[in-house]
Amino acid sequence: MNAVADGQKIIGNANIGIQDVHKSTINIVQYIGKSTEFKNLEDRLKELLELFDAIPENKTEKRLEVSKKIEKQKQYIEFFRQDVLRLARTFQNVAIDTERLRQAKQHFEAGEFNQANAILNVDKLHAEQKSLLAKKEVNQKEVASLNKQLRHNAAEYLVKAQVTALDYSNKNRFEDTRKYYESSIRSFPFFNNLINFAYFLQTHNQFNEAEPIYCCIILNLRDELSKDDLAIILNNLAVLHKNKNDFVNAEKELKATLAIYQALAKTNSETYLPYVAMTLANLANLHLAKNDFIIAEKEYKKAVKIQKILAETDPETYLPAIATTLNNLAILHKNRNGFVKAEKEYNEALLIQKSLAKINPETFLPEVAGTLNNRGVLHFAKNDFEEAENNYNEALDIFRGLDKANPEAYLPNVAGTLNNLAVLHSVKENFEKAEIEYKEALKIRRYFAKTNPEAFLPDIATTQNNLANIHMDKNEFVEAEQEFKEALKIRRHLSKTSPEAFLPDVARTLNNLAKLNLANSEFGQAEMKFREALKIQRRLVKADPKANLPDLSMTLNNLADLHSKKNDLVKAEKEIKEALEIRRSLAKTNPEVFTPDLAITLVNISLFYLQDLPDKKKSITFACELIQLLHIFSKKTPDTIRYFTTAINVLGAWGFDSEYLDILGNSSNTLKKNTAPR
Predict the structure, then answer these.
(1) Which domain holds residue 59?
(2) How far is CA 360 from CA 320, 364, 365, 367, 414, in A?
(3) Reported confidence tier of residue 673, pLDDT bands at 50, 70, 90
(4) According to the per-residue pLDDT averaged within each range, which of 88-97, 606-615, 639-648 is highest?
(5) How many domains does the chain have?
(6) Which of 199, 228, 258 delimits the end of a domain?
(7) Which of 99, 284, 393, 401 fits 300 for a cystine, CB–CB 3.0-4.6 Å?
(8) Which of 166, 199, 232 is the last residue of a domain?
């Protein structure tokens, strides 16, 4: 069986986030503490939490509905804080040259946000704007004076927009805020109204509208921008482009951001080194998503080196960042089969996260669970199933505990770990348990994909692909084909915008669907899909052989099986030899992981020279190599037992005496004892 259940879901700690528009030491507590609006938001959160606690645990849909409202309310509170901070900066950065602005600022500082909004009467603002623009059009001589007045009007509209954004009781909050930003820019476009409008649009997922505003600032105001401001704009653009899966532009912008912060850090390392580390980690995350592992590794290592220096003087701030970077670096090393390095990095990250979770469990227990899940993925890849299952179960227990208090936030993590447990149980041939876990994971992912398809479609494809493997193993071919096709459709769609990230998944699903065709004797369909998978994988191997050679060898092995069934023995022999050469090389450098794959190909080639192209010497040589290999292999699985038994049968078919085979048979029984359920 070579259709390996792919797509172990790694719950990583993506480090890319929108940096705040300006760094500031403004204390907003003095304004928020006096605000009735803020108190109303907090009171509403308290009501929702009490309502959630009163709902029985078996009322899953109702709990999810209220949990979603709780998350939204928490988001409103955080947005409110950030909006107050940005408004405070606006009052710092614009000239308070009108009576309305002076009064609005006084109300703001008193925490009277609605009164500040009322002072900036939109009818008066609009009438003044209309009059000033008309005068400017008629009388070019007064342009300088009129521009000054229009800038005052623009500043008042800017404050009006930002105060309106604080009113979460307004059902038209987004539309009204947007309208006032547009009016501000119509009067007089300047840095503060442009960047705040772009940021507002971006945080409300209006990426296509935010993008040209950022570009306008860079093109038209570049000479007025500080290096600090330019770095922030480029970083925000990079986040925007990454969210749109435009990795090419995101990479250019992050590189430009990094260059600015590195230059600033030369003269002010205390302020800017943290931003250098942050941008390096963000670049590395981008390259990891693109499967550019070599570049990503260098960036992660530079980032963690800086973070460790910073943590010497401020551990509270930088230890969490170190743990995040180590976790992501471990994901990278696991993907490149660097398991010793990955194990060390996961263990170091866990040590930090567990110590932080003792002080602040609400923040750091999810991080502990995520890293446990990822370490389980690593042990699964090493065929250390007991350790993998222990890690998964510990992670799942934490996520289910968190899920009870906040299903909206943690159910996706429950689904990720369930998917991984199901992969493990399917390999251990506990198909009933695996199918239950896959179906629960799929149900959760479909629920979240209704409102956020971009985030959850890749996960749905993963679970569909893996569930199809279960159904194929159970000879339920109709269900398997439907699930493979749905997974392939999603993955092809995703690969159009992000080929580096999703083409490996396309090739794996093609390989699995081809195996299904082969099982149904649909040789033409199978060959077409195997060849497409092989073409993709050969291209990927050129870019990163370490990451992609295992998949290439799998498809070669399967294609050889197809050609032997079609009696095209020349092609079959060439393909199985290439697969064997790759797998011997992989098993030599990493026996724990790749010995089972090598065993598959040794079984197939010994049978090939027994049944298809009889060659006694070659067949016996490969069968004996397999027996010797499995004798020294420490991690036994049901599959390796079958391969061992097949090798004995091959030797028997060539006439080996029964006494010798009995000795080998006893060795096989010893292997079986070593694989008793644990």
Answers:
(1) 33-199
(2) 12, 6, 8, 11, 21
(3) very low
(4) 606-615
(5) 2
(6) 199
(7) 284
(8) 199
